[in-house]
What does this fold into?
Amino acid sequence: MCLKLGRVMSHQMSGLPEPESAALPHLLVAKGSFAAMGGAERDLLRNLPALEKIFSVKVATLHPVPELVELCQKLDVQLFSPKKNWIVSTNSWSIVFDTSKNSAKNAWKSCKGLVEEIENTNGIHIVSGDGSLALLDLIPDHVSTHLHLLEPHRGLHEDVLHRDINGRPKRNLKLTKFALSYARNRDVSTIRKLAKRKRSAISANSNFTSSRIAEIYQVNSNVLWPSVDISEFPPEAGSDEPESFDEISKPYAVNIGRASWVKGTLQTIQAVSRTGIGLVHIGGASEEDAKIMRGFAERKTVKLWIAPRLSSPELAGLIRGADAVISLAINEPFGLTPIEAFSIGTPAIFVDEGGFKDTIENHVSGQLVPRSDHSSWYDLLKNLNAEQKTAWTKAGRTKIAELDLSPEAHARRIKESFDLLNKGE
It folds into this structure.
């Protein structure tokens, strides 16, 4: 599939001069798959309009979603993708022998006009994820390349994704680690090879992720923060924002992230137990995991609502009505959820790990709590007060301003990265 630039084509057909955007540097923005439509995908969609103002942007993906297609049509941005959506293989053979990388490379090649675009563009901005790194094999050395590495591949370098929601290994962990040796070594080789290219740069999404990249790949990286659109998480409620929900009554806390061990889902339910506070889980769950969550919540006497997919006003309304936004996710790469809580004005109480430490200033804009300190979780959730909430909100919004997390700032930082790569031409 290839969506054409209607604006440019109409100028060409009419004989009129090219639009002003033709003078902007060309940038190809690529991500392997948008199928998950999680935080990384939404962050990229959020930033495309800002990037389009300072670059002549084109987009490439192996698996588009309606939201991406609609945005590209709205912006008159060309979208490259294969005729048939690429899907990462999950069978054991493919995982052990890393065949998905080869199939992704072939899928990239099949995108009509993409190879020619890669040869002639000024720069390529790649966002990591399934299928993304396979594109690197098609990029010649003369093309400036920026990789936004959101996290080292956790399935290859950690065991957290190889455990069920209860934390039990899905299979023998030692055998799993051994079986993934080939794919793991290949992943390390790919990142190190990119780091050695003269016209390349790697950015993490937090200081924590940057330290993990150095630890795993032994390469340096900059930090490119994700963005937050304040209009999605407004300080004041909009007219379309619901004030209450039939499925949950106050008081309640909100937890965001697809149910799993790595997101600390059951531990989050445990954290609110005995407090009398309910829990809204946002991000979905498999049928099996949802059943486990409901059973665990019932045993812990926690009123649980596993929310369906929500609109932005519904999400904002749920967060605004909550006593707190909480998470016990294991070494989360970047703490975007606390930022969203800051923006709305809901207290952020998060586990003292990972990227959450980049965004929460402990005891100032929120609270960072050790995972196993059950009494502290209980005391905080039971004793939140209006004065503390006001102070945390004020400090949190100051943090947003300091980090400058607007899409425009994100786009500007990407432009600065390419300016450095192209310096001296």
